[in-house]
Design a protein that fits this description.
The protein is α+β, with helices and mostly antiparallel strands and about 400 residues long. α4 packs parallel to α8 and α5 crosses α8.
């Protein structure tokens, strides 16, 4: 087993990181310790389910097979054949992209970056104003379908120490082009009504749809940048941890449920990213008040059927938490318990997203008022307001299907 270690981290690197990122880390609410080391992707829970006998089981094997038309359909609402059919169909575009490099051990978008289908143009567009270029990139990202876009520094702390060769699940070099300076982070909103049906196979369509959307969007945006004559590496869950990049890009703040809370969509997002050397101005991170709210709210931990979410304050993960990054003070889930529940369910579970008080429709004045209270010293009133409401009530999948 590849246990997390400090391998490859020198004292010179630690000092450089401290000098370079102390101010922006503080603004983002990110706190690292002397035990920090970049994460080894082979240790993420989904990858461990293929090679680690302490994780792999008939349930985990069944979980992955259920996405390949081998689900065990049930009569229960939300787990019928039509529910799995919609979920699996929603993943199709993502699957086509991720499976095309299988013979090379590259699961693109998950264990390897998405291959660059567009060559870098020989002629390079001159960029005189990085701030103007940043605005243009965000506008193009939204044209292609992204709901949010932010830009941050190429912070190598969040790159994986190594990626995974999916032929034998060994470690492989996590190589990127030289000279990359920025990370463009894109947010993709999940369907609110489908999220309301968690836990169900039907709800998994909200996840799959956004993975398929983001696969197309990052490829297109990367192609645009490469046509300008600059490097651009399209990435989803591969290459590095997207959550710290999203936070540093000013898109939101980390929460107890392990998600990024955004003012536009709460936790109801998937994120993708592009690594590039295109000259771009960077966005500033900012603490919104989410941490202070989460210090008083345990809705996600209370609702978690696997009891995988923490109740206490933020802390660094225990050494035995193989699937957690070392040396970062944060709320950390019991990933093994969480995924174990997913495996038995045969679908992803995001009850923690559904019940999160920030899971709201912020296009309405009432929810915008709630957000203003939640991010202020009046947060106790906001929490009480949410507790007394039926906002987090689960929608029956048959109601989503509009069945009698």
């Amino acid at each position: 087993m590849s246990w997390p270690s400090n391998s490859g981290v020198t004292e010179e690197q630690r000092k450089d990181w401290a000098d370079r990122y102390a101010e922006s880390d503080a603004a983002a609410g990110i706190e690292t310790t002397e035990d920090f080391a970049p994460f080894i992707q082979r240790n993420d829970m989904f990858t461990r389910a293929f090679w680690d006998d302490t994780v792999r089981s008939k349930f985990t094997d069944g979980f992955f097979q259920s996405y390949r038309m081998k689900a065990k359909y049930r009569k229960g609402d939300g787990f019928r054949q039509k529910d799995f059919a919609l979920r699996n169909a929603s993943w199709l575009i993502s699957d086509i992209i991720s499976n095309r490099g299988a013979d090379q051990g590259r699961r693109e978008g998950f264990q390897a970056p998405i291959a660059c289908d567009t060559p870098v143009a020989e002629a390079q567009v001159e960029i005189d104003d990085p701030a103007k270029m940043a605005d243009e990139v965000k506008r193009i990202a939204k044209f292609f379908g992204a709901d949010l876009a932010g830009i941050t520094d190429m912070d190598t702390r969040w790159l994986y120490q190594s990626r995974v060769d999916t032929r034998d699940f060994s470690e492989a070099e996590n190589d990127l082009p030289e000279g990359l300076t920025s990370v463009i982070v894109l947010g993709h909103q999940m369907d609110q009504e489908l999220v309301a049906t968690y836990p169900s196979a039907l709800a998994g369509a909200a996840t799959g749809r956004e993975y398929s959307h983001e696969a197309a969007i990052v490829i297109q945006l990367a192609a645009y940048i490469r046509n300008l004559g600059y490097e651009a590496v399209a990435s989803m869950n591969d290459t590095g941890l997207v959550i710290p990049y999203a936070i540093k890009a000013g898109l939101g703040e980390y929460a107890r449920n392990q998600m990024v809370i955004t003012p536009e969509f709460g936790p109801r997002l998937r994120f993708s990213k592009i690594f590039t050397n295109l000259p771009l101005a960077h966005d500033a991170p900012a603490k919104l008040g989410v941490e202070e709210f989460c210090n008083q709210c345990t809705a996600c931990a209370d609702a978690c059927p696997a009891k995988a979410l923490p109740f206490g304050p933020k802390e660094t993960s225990a050494p035995e938490a193989v699937s957690a990054i070392r040396g970062v003070k944060k709320w950390t889930s019991d990933a093994k318990a969480c995924f174990g529940y997913w495996a038995k369910l045969q679908s992803d579970c995001a009850i923690c997203m559904r019940v999160c008080p920030f899971n709201r429709d912020f296009t309405t004045w009432k929810d915008r008022l709630w957000l203003k209270l939640a991010l202020s010293p009046w947060r106790k009133w906001a929490l009480a307001w949410d507790t007394k409401s039926d906002r987090a009530k689960r929608m029956k999948p048959k109601d989503w299907w509009q069945e009698e």
